[in-house]
Amino acid sequence: MLLIGGMRIRFISTFFLILFVNVVLLLLISNLLFNDSSGEFVVIFFLFLQNTLIITFLVYHFSIKIL
User: Fold this and answer.
1) pLDDT tens-digit profile of 28-59?
2) At 1, is the pLDDT very low, low, confident or very high (cuts 50, 70, 90)?
3) Could you give the CA distance from residue 64 to residue 13 in angstroms, rounded to a whole number?
4) What's CA 62's distance to the chain center, in Å?
């Protein structure tokens, strides 16, 4: 039961970490969109970074769950 509780806490903390990263990157992207007229490359880079972080955390979580 302790392991299940630990996995639940890890899932919740991973979820909130992904949510925090999404909010921070969304604020950065909106700030760049409103302040920089030629920042399309930077916006695409931040979107790529966001997707990479989400996929990394999901793979990490499910690999821990399988093991």
Assistant:
1) 777 766 665 666 667 767 777 777 777 777 77
2) very low
3) 14
4) 15
Per cent of the chain over pLDDT 90 is 0
CA 44, 46, 51, 52 torsion: positive or negative?
positive
C-alpha 11: how far from its chain's center? 13
* Cα–Cα nearest to 48, from 29, 27, 61, 23: 29
The phi and psi torsions of 20 (rounded to 5 degrees) equal -65, -45
Contact indicator for 46, 23 with CB cutoff of 8 Å: no
Closest of 25, 8, 4, 19 to residue 57, by C-alpha = 19
